[in-house]
Design a protein that fits this description.
seven-stranded parallel beta sheet; 9 helices
């Protein structure tokens, strides 16, 4: 891990859900480079172990396997993360799953429930549990990872659109409820970022070409570009920002 010239998180502890891949893993790398100690969370221990090997920062990062959409598991996750870090100064809610890509007429109800559980209920459970620790410790910063789908509906993704739109309003609700405790809460809304979830779209010539054509910058984003935005919102550079959405989409929303 190459240290960043910025050391905005020196002496601070961060918990990142969904930290074993994609945007979450890139955020872990960014915060580590800026001096943080980090706990990454995911459901699969093997993926966590792989991410830890890539991050290559023994003693500064650890991984905890837990289902962040399950309340008892969340309680265990936050207790173990708090114990390892000493205190959680930063929470990044980056876990997520894609929708089925089917018309609402054909959408299975179990898929609806699962996508909302992972993309909306999970961030609520984790943010609530961590905020209770932050309130006692004197404050902190929470960043959720929503999506352009939370701002504009994409056809055939009703469950994903709904979950990410709900996450936008959850972020704002947390911001107004927690401001008196010194806790800032903001969201990033990425467009198409090249992650394991979007790689199949990018690899398909027709689908990938259509997506790139709709983005003024003409390409998928890199997870590190979203991680940079998350680091800004979580840092003291954003000390007067709460309840806001930072779109990271290569200009796509500007065309809509």
């Amino acid at each position: 891990m190459v240290p960043s010239p910025l050391q905005r998180f020196a002496g601070r502890g961060a918990l990142i859900t969904g930290g074993s891949s994609g945007i979450g893993k890139a955020t872990a790398a960014r915060l580590l480079a800026e001096g943080a100690r980090v706990v990454i969370n995911g459901r699969d221990q093997a993926r966590i172990d792989g991410a830890l090997a890539e991050l290559a920062s023994p003693g500064l990062v650890c991984g905890i396997a837990a289902d962040a959409a399950d309340e008892p598991e969340v309680a265990r996750l936050v207790a173990e993360a708090s114990a390892w870090l000493g205190r959680v100064d930063v929470l990044v809610c980056s876990m997520g799953m894609d929708g089925a890509g089917s018309s609402v007429l054909d959408l299975p109800s179990d898929m609806w429930r699962r996508v909302l559980a992972v993309n909306l209920i999970g961030p609520f459970l984790v943010a609530q549990a961590v905020a209770r620790h932050m309130a006692q410790a004197g404050g902190g910063a929470i960043v959720t990872v929503s999506s352009l789908n939370g701002l504009a509906a994409e056809p055939h993704f009703a469950e994903y659109n709904t979950a990410k739109g709900g996450l936008v309003m959850l972020t704002r609700s947390l911001a107004v409820d927690l401001v008196e405790h010194g806790i800032r809460v903001n969201a990033v809304c990425p467009g198409y970022i090249l992650t394991p979830m979007t790689e199949p779209y990018a690899a398909d010539p027709q689908t990938g070409g259509a997506i790139r054509a709709a983005i003024p910058m003409g390409r998928f984003g890199d997870p590190a570009e979203v991680a940079a935005a998350i680091a800004f919102l979580a840092s003291s550079d954003a000390s007067y920002i709460t309840g806001e959405l930072l779109v990271v989409d290569g200009g796509r929303l500007a065309r809509q």
